Amino acid sequence: MRPFLPTSRNLLLAAAIFTASVTDAQVAAPAPWPKVQQQTKPWTRWWWMGSAVDEKNLGAQLDSIGRAGFGGVEIVPIYGAMGYEQRYIPYLTPRWMQVLDYTTQKASSLGMGVDMAVGTGWPIGGPQVTAPLAATRLVVQKYALGPGQSLAEKIVLNDPKQPALPGTSLAALVAYGDDGSIQDLTGKVDATGKLNWTPSKGKYELYAAFSGKTRQMVKRAAPGGEGYTFDHFSKEPITAYLHTFDSVFGKTSHGVRSFFNDSYEVYGADWTPGFFEEFRNRRGYDLKPFLRELTGTEKSERVARLKSDYRETMSDLMLDNFTKTFTAWAHRIGAQNTNQAHGSPGNLLDLYAAVDIPEAETFGSSYFPIPGLRRDSGDVRNVDPDPNMLKFASSAAHAMGHNLSSSETFTWLTEHFKTSWAQCKPELEQVFLSGINHVFYHGTTYYPADAPWPGWLFYASVNFVPSNSLWPHLNGLNNYITRCQSVLQAGEPDNEVMIYWPVYDSWNRPTGMDMPLKVHDIDEWLHPTAFYKDLVQLQQKGYSLDFVSDRMIESSRVNGGTIRVTAKGAAHKVLLVPECRLMPVNTLQQIVRLARNGATVVMQQLPKDVPGLGNLDRQRARFNLVLDSLKFTATGTEGVQELKLDSGRILLAADVAAALQHAGIRGEGLTATGLKFIRRAVPNGKFYYLVNHTAKAVDEVLPLQTLASSALILDPQSGAYGSAPVTRSGNTSGIRVQLQPGEALIVKTGTEKTAAPAWAYVQPAGEPVALKGDWKLRFTGGGPVLPKEATLKQLQYWTKLEDTAAAAFSGTAEYSTSFTLPAKNAADYELALGKVAESARVWINGKEVGLLWSIPFTARVGKYLQPGKNSIRIEVANLMANRIRDMDRKGIPWRRYHEINFVNINYKPFDASVWPVQPSGLEGPVTLRPLKVVR
Questions:
Q1: Contacts of 605 (CB under 8 A, 6+ apart)
Q2: Measuring CA to CA, which of 121, 434, 502, 932 is 20 to 30 A from 817?
Q3: How far is 58 from 53, CA to CA, in rounded Å?
Q4: How far apart are CA 281 and CA 122, in angstroms?
Q5: Pairing label, strands 744-750, 710-714
């Protein structure tokens, strides 16, 4: 029989009860919950449409955001709403800075923080980006010459869109002879484009390389922010761009905590004017003679190596010239910086590591087998988020000792107006499980009080706005995040394995030019790799991992057998090198160094070769010299070989899990139950964050890979906590955990005894009893009009009423009834609401039980019940969808925006008139079930 399990664990001693609440003071739970701070609460991206903001409305919305449990906002100015143009404030003008100063001061008075995009829309750019500083692309034109011929035409850029742009210039002219000769003719082209060269013999193909411009403008720009996006691979453009900020910000951040840069979406930017020189300095050879191979269609290994060198140079330039310059600027004015590196044509780990707050992004929705979790196929983009993609950001933060790694969360989670907080929860939990601990919602739109419902809305987000009919219940989700993040920001990461990311295997491709590592292209550059396969296999076996780059390995140090990338970075027990073909000789040498200094290294196989084309023979000779020095011997474990080096060792095994076992590194056995986890190490113990995304309840003693004298169970859904008994066996500690599908728990292990009251484990003490009889239904808030009150013989969604107003209604309504409990003869009772569309707040006998906003919509309610007659009131909030549907069916205009206006999840014109009515309200059955409590 499947064990019966609770959801909201409120059956603790009265003094220890800590239920979900709408006030921040109550969120700040007593020990052992860590202290609530700004960054432990969720933040939200705050779109300023047209920057049409004013102090009165800014203050009112900040008040509303603060009451809902947010810790801060991230200002991103974008395009504006039509009809409000007279209110637009041009970006960075004195008036714009005035409203920014008001915002930071008002937020501070509310205990909130403010971040700000370093630009409007995306990608970064604006009017200060002149054409010479704009994003650059390589343009190649070909010419042919025979013996004794002179080139009649001028060597000038023929693209009709380019000549008018300053900054386009000839970068190189290379002649390829039919005899195999190569000549650099760049110096033989005069200022007018005339070629002063004639071949004496043979036929030549001439390749002219121009530094052209992509002509890409800032997308979704706000007034005053329109202009070119700039060249990320040169230092001059970012320096000139930030000079504009210096002129208005001076030497202070104006109260901005962190300046934010969105994901790299600069299309076709594969060049920078100084690239040939940079390439020669960084790769050690001249790229010009290889211009034909670089831009041609040849698919040889030689070309793949050439393009690997080209891509590595692009990565270096983006890191050194853009990312580090951005970070230094933010620090100079007393702020931090936040950057989304994904999508960049560079080593994501190094780019993320060079900023204060690395930020990842979730896009689309995942499938979870949680019973009752709604996932309508028509409301889902054809994108499956991979939480391992998020680990590039969290791993970089862990390596550098940065406590925060953030995520742009819920982008296109569902179709507009159809996202419930229950749908947000498991997607959010995947983010936490990946190591992200500072969530930003995507997002919230500013709108003035005189904007008619639904206010102003952004085209690609979940609408976390006060006009959302689910807003009154948002505290449930926000308080859950606050409790989780208070734990996930505590101490330091506790991932035992650092796994090398072989980026050179990805770069070594003969096709294409630059290689942006995009979220949407992971099927090409991530999923097929041994790195990814090892990652998934080891996670299933209970191992937790961080990613490391070649640069990180070089800076790593060993102390007492543990490896840290930086002195403040996370400690790891082992370095894992997955199967890879190409590895720089320096990286191989650094791996051997770590082993000599006491590290345990596991290699799935020895690399085969060095990457790149520069100094290839010399690099290969050095590489082979190191490989030849590695002499492995058999161990007692089949398939595992060992090389002992001074105080450390290298294990060689195709089965990396077997090698880890041989090294004494054990995965968490709890994953055999289907549970997912992440750990944090704190003084005298560990935090385990556990999530049940399966279809089955779990009621087991979990073997945790830590020696504990005590354990506390903390419920992030309700805030309740209590001590749990611990059994010890070998190096593990056993702790019983009860988790329903869709639930999460936190276990805190310790080396000292705790005085907390005992945690209450429950079992059913009888069958559930449905609350039958008449139910009164009363609509309490929302629109377009409040439907009439109704008396229901049995529970049903209000969208099944004959009242047509109910089908168009979005808001809140109360279901109420009374029932008789002959006697309180059970230790506790579980209330189960059954089918809820979409969120509920419950009162029993006039006392608030709390918000039931996620699956399985149950709570322990024994302390609220009394023998005899009882009353229950259930406030239900539904989606915005039905009211939007009604407006579209009636032709009521509500979406009028400049630029992209408003689109559906597939970027087609939005039309809700064709939607079916979304079930809304409470269908139940609402039941009470007696419980037996075991402590």
A1: 579, 652, 654
A2: 932
A3: 7
A4: 32
A5: antiparallel
* Type of residue found at 539: Q
Region label for 907, one of left (φ > 0), alpha (ψ between -120 and 50) or beta (otherwise): left
Q: How far is CA 517 from CA 181, 354, 521, 535, 584, in A?
A: 36, 17, 7, 18, 20
Which residues is 930 bridged to in the sheet?
Answer: 829
d(CA 185, CA 207): 10
Which uninterrupted H or E stretch holds 759?
none
In SS3 terms, 760-781 reads as: CEEEECCCCEECCCCEEEEEEE
Looking up tokens 């609530």 gives 36
Partnered with residue 810 across adjacent β-strands are: 783
Determine if residue 924 is left, alpha or beta; phi over 0 gives left, psi from -120 to 50 gives alpha, anything else beta.
left
Q: Do residues 295 and 310 touch, judged by C-beta distance below 8 A? A: no
Residue 163 has a pLDDT of 74
776 and 815 Cβ atoms separated by less than 8 Å: yes
Helix (H) or strand (E) holding 689: strand 685-691
Closest CA to 429 of 836, 20, 745, 36: 745
**Which run of H or of E encompasses 811?**
strand 810-821
Compute how many other C-beta atoms are within 10 angstroms of the C-beta atom of residue 731: 12
Sequence-distant (6+) residues with CB within 8 A of 107 are: 62, 72, 73, 113, 114, 255
Taking the C-alpha atoms of residue 105 and residue 113, their distance in angstroms, rounded to an integer, is 9
Regions of the chain where pLDDT drops below 70? 1-31, 383
Which pair of tokens denotes residue 699? Answer: 């009621």
CA atoms lying within 13 Å on the CB side of residue 542: 18
Which is nearest to 845 in space by CA: 866, 815, 826, 828? 866
DSSP category for residue 513 = S
The answer to whether 183 and 173 have CB atoms below 8 angstroms apart is no
Q: Which residues of 242-278 are buried (b: 16+ CB within 10 A; e: fewer)?
A: beebeeebeeebbbbbbbbbbbbbbebbbbbbbbbeb
Q: Vertex 199, ends 196 and 202: CA angle to 5°?
A: 160
The first and second tokens of residue 534, run together, are 């090892």
Helices assigned H by DSSP within 348-386: 348-353
Contact 711, 386 (CB under 8 A): no
Q: Which residues contact 61 (CB under 8 A, 6 or more apart)?
A: 446, 447, 466
The confidence score (pLDDT) of residue 121 equals 94
Specify the DSSP class assigned to residue 374: -
Summary mean pLDDT of the chain: 94
Q: Which pLDDT score is estimated for 134?
A: 96
pLDDT tens digits for 254-271? Answer: 999 999 999 999 999 999
What local confidence, expressed as pLDDT, does residue 202 receive? 92
C-alpha distances (whole Å) from 590 to each of 346, 554, 573, 617 are 22, 6, 17, 20
- Residue 376 has what pLDDT? 86
Instruction: Tell me how far apart the alpha carbons of residues 458 and 644 are, in angstroms, rounded to a whole number.
Output: 59
As a whole number of angstroms, the distance between CA 542 and CA 561 comes to 21
CA 851, 857, 863, 868 torsion-angle sign:
positive
Model confidence pLDDT, tens digit, residues 27-42: 433 468 999 999 999 9
Residue-level pLDDT at 29: 39
Distance of alpha carbon 270 from alpha carbon 310, whole angstroms:
10
pTM, two decimal places: 0.95
- The token duo for 667 is 């995965």
Backbone phi and psi for residue 806, each to the nearest 5 degrees, phi listed first: -70, -30
Task: Choose among 721, 769, 722: nearest CA to 865.
Answer: 769
Nearest one of 553, 534, 554, 556 to 545, comparing CA atoms: 534
